[in-house]
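A favour, since you know our structure tokens better than I do. What I am after is a single protein written out in full by you. Could you add the entry underneath, on a fresh line?


***
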Amino acid sequence: MKTVKTIRTVEKVISICSWLILMFFLTGTVLAQEPDQKDDFAVYGIRQVRITHSCDPAVPSPQSQAAANAIPCATTQIFPPGSTTSVWSQDISWFNPVTKKFYLADRNNFGIDILDVTNDTVLGVATGFLGNQPGTNTSGPNGVLVTNNPHQIWGADGNSSVRVYRLNATGDTATFLTSVPTGGVKRADELAYDPDDQLILVANDDNSELFVTFISVSANKNNIQVVGKISFLGPNPANCPMGGCATDGIEQPVYDHGTGLFYLAVPQTTGHPNGEIAVIDPKTKKVVNVFGLTDVNNNPIPCLPHGLTLGPRQQLLLGCSADVDDVNFPNGRALVSIVISAIDGRLVFLTNKVGGSDEVWFNPGDNTYYLAASSWQLDKNGMGFICPSANPPANCPTTAAPVLGIIDAGSDADGPEFIQNIKTAAGAHSVAAIFYPSEKSGKRPGDRDFINKVYVPLRVTPGVETGGFGVVGRIP
């Protein structure tokens, strides 16, 4: 079933100065300024970020108006059953810069929404997924990605399968191709694509399963097959890869063309209860290294990572979660986000100004990381903190404070820098940044402006929100 939803466009008007800085970022040239000058510029620009959506009236300052023609998210599945207003159950999102289309796992519509980012309009849905299956960890779709050669959507479903759809040239029409079982019972979750070896890596995250599956990519459905598997399921360490058995799910993977390796966020293992990044060779289909998450003094960083994205200079941003673990963190723990080296796991950057993230995204268009920190929460001192479930201390958070975190990825001259948090809404755990050249002429022949904005799906909450997409953009 097709749905029609319209959201307000937030366009970036780029000045000559910001255009030059963007070009420096894209060409890898080091900015010839003092670090504090660069920081001042970034803060100045990002402070004018506005968020526009059709559901949450408590938008951050400066106040912005919801689009007059914004339509609440249409639903074909009511959740919870019997309610008059449905909670919008959505998961991972994806942007394809080649076709300028955005894709979102939308369980209420049993499929993957397809949006045109040039006019912020939903075009249709790639249907056939299980939808909401409350309390069973068998809902779908979950993870989503798009390949360009062949041109396909891949979506992980709730019955431990991955559904593949053929896309037309413009990426707005999807035709079902095949479904590939991964061998489990619970949901298949997040995905990564290796175009060098034409492989998809998909994670089954339920604690009763805990494995990743390699699936071959092909335009011929008969050649789309499971070609390997790695188990992270305990309790016998001999059956688990280096680093130990996973004890709290397995999360977002990413592929790095520079190293030719997959990287997988593992929130906790028997060897690293604070979390680790498993390094996987797609050729041998084995874990070949593990990055324990430690600071410069080799002390464990309590990250418990869920989100993972590849940024510039072979660096990985980790979206550290707000998972509760009374055994290893009996006094609770600070919420943080970190950047590490994809080469050796060395810590590059740590901030305690945003955390509790799920999906994270790097946008090369503005050299910026975006973190869907839907579980960010503050203690009485205004610091990010997660309490233990038993005997919580006095400084525990009283209310959640979900945000979109924004971190400048930096340059060779100076590294990443936290910029700002933008208020979102409960359940806003999905994010994708949009980057494409506009049709406007530049200041010189051959120059073109670029559109940079961010989509944050905001779920429906009965009596509070009617649903919609948050659109974030930087206004110079």
Remarks:
- The longest strand covers residues 448-458.
- DSSP finds two helices and 30 strands in the chain.
- The domain at 16-473 is CATH 2.130.10.10 (Methylamine Dehydrogenase; Chain H).
- The chain has one domain: 16-473.
